[in-house]
C-alpha cells in the first residue's frame, strides 16, 4: 500500500503535513472513519485542529483520494478510494467525479462500523446517464458485524 505522500504525488497534488496525517489515518484504518474519529487519532499534532481536518477531508474528496459515506447517525464517514474501483460518470453525464464511488457499504447498526464492499458495485446502464443527471449513488447493507454478533450471542 502506498503512503499518503506517494498517493498525492502520483496524483500531481501538493502534500502538506495535515493532508498527509489525515490521509495516512484513513489508509491505516480497516473501516471508514468519522471526522471525530480522525481528529481523535490525530490528537497531539498541534497544527491540526477540527477545522483543518474538515478542510483536508473536503480537499481529499474533491481530489478523489477519499469518498464520503452517509451513516445512520447523520455523521459522514470517510474511506480511502480504491484506485481501481472509483466510479466516474461517462463524459456525457457530467464532468468530474460523481459524489460517490459506486460500490456498497456494510453498516453495523450496533457499533456504527462502516466497511466498503468493493465486490458489490453499481452497474448503471448508459441509458440512465443519457436521460438522468446522476449526482450520487448509494448502496447500503445494514445489519450487525461479526464482533457485535458474537458479543450478543455471549450474553
Automatic annotation (TrEMBL):
Keyword annotations: DNA-binding, Repressor, Transcription, Transcription regulation, Zinc
Coiled-coil ranges from the UniProt annotation: none
Pfam family, one: FUR
SUPFAM superfamilies: Winged helix' DNA-binding domain
Endoplasmic reticulum recorded as keyword: no
InterPro entries given in the database record: FUR (IPR002481), Fur_C (IPR043135), WH-like_DNA-bd_sf (IPR036388), WH_DNA-bd_sf (IPR036390)
Keyword Ligase recorded: no
Entry similarity comment: Belongs to the Fur family.
Name of the protein in its database record: Fur family transcriptional regulator
Amino acid at each position: 500500500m502506498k503512503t499518503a505522500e506517494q498517493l498525492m504525488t502520483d496524483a500531481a497534488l501538493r502534500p502538506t503535513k495535515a493532508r498527509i496525517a489525515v490521509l495516512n489515518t484513513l489508509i491505516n484504518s480497516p473501516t471508514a472513519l468519522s471526522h471525530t474519529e480522525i481528529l481523535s487519532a490525530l490528537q497531539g499534532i498541534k497544527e491540526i485542529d477540527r477545522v483543518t481536518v474538515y478542510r483536508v477531508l473536503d480537499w481529499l474528496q474533491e481530489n478523489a483520494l477519499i469518498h464520503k459515506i452517509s451513516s445512520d447517525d447523520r455523521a459522514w464517514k470517510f474511506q480511502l478510494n480504491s484506485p481501481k474501483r472509483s466510479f466516474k460518470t461517462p463524459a456525457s453525464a457530467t464532468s468530474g467525479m460523481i459524489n460517490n464511488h459506486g460500490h456498497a457499504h456494510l453498516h453495523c447498526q450496533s457499533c456504527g462500523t462502516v466497511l466498503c464492499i468493493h465486490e458489490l458495485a453499481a452497474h448503471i446502464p448508459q441509458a440512465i446517464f443519457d436521460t438522468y443527471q446522476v449526482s450520487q449513488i448509494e448502496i447500503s447493507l445494514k445489519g450487525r458485524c461479526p464482533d457485535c454478533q458474537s458479543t450478543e450471542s455471549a450474553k
